[in-house]
Amino acid sequence: MIELTQETKAILDKSLDEKIAYIAKANWINYPLAQSILNQLEDILTYEQGKDRVTSVLLVGSSNNGKTSLLKRFIELHPPYDLFKTNPEKLTKEFFEKYHATGIPVKYIIAPSEPSETRLYSTILNGINAPFKESDNTAKKQYLVEYYLEMLDINMLVIDEIHNILSGSVAKQKQMLNAIKNLSNNLKIPIILAGTKDALRTINTDTQISSRFRPVYLTKWKMDKDYVALLGTILATLPLKKESDILNSKTAQEILNISEGYIGDIVALLKKAAIYALQNNKEKITINEIRECGYMSMENVKKSINLQDI
After folding, report:
1. DSSP state for residue 234 in the 8-state scheme
2. Cα 138 from chain centre
3. Which of 34, 185, 224, 302 shows a CA-CA span of 20 to 30 A to 53?
4. pTM of the entire structure?
5. Does 231 fall in a domain?
6. Domain that holds residue 47
7. Is the dihedral of CA 257, 261, 262, 265 positive or negative?
8. Average pLDDT of each block of 10 consecutive residues along the chain (310 residues)?
């Protein structure tokens, strides 16, 4: 029998609306591959910064297969801190007053939809609320990026949706990748890129870039003990009073078929099935709830519970 988490147990006797809101909210689902990648990122953050040649990572996975959720979890594990206590010598009075001495270990941005060096710098500066003008030339923006990232003690830069660079010409793609490489070189910090396998193809066209960004893969799920364990982990977060019958091979395979092995769709389907069960006073998920919700497209399943990106 699956034991609910302590947080989930506390919700069992709440109202239907409260339980639905609890189910719909984004929550971290841990599993062995995700933990392995988190450990790799932790090692990079701890041991790579400051080296003359920093090794970084390209996190590769299909859309809705957990990249963004994993990166945001890593950032949650490294929250902002009081920079004045740890590095008071880095702060000028003006800088202290503007940023309140907040250090940022890991900074997350989304790659600009229009790939260019200047747009990349603008995205980073906007992300840290740094003062600049869009009309500033590229060299000045680069200087400001490097200045503020160093002053804010940013030790890792994460750039998600890096496959956005494919919307530009080959020349623009190379320009942006070189800008990323130069930031890593000049600041001596690791940079984590995340995107689909198309981004991997682009990065592999430049040996200097590909040698720095080691690919790490988020694969789709298949029928094995790790997948069944994942279903159990998700069930432990759903406030249902009766034991759900979905860990048998038939129902587990049905979930896998509907979701096509993407963790985002697996989580969305189970959450929708749990809400459907609660609304119909069933208090458990069976293959009937899975099939009932599976008739909806996965996009509509996620929209129906306002589920955020997984």
Report:
1. H
2. 29
3. 34
4. 0.86
5. no
6. 32-218
7. positive
8. 92 96 90 94 90 89 90 94 65 58 87 92 93 94 94 92 88 90 94 91 80 91 95 96 95 95 94 96 95 70 51
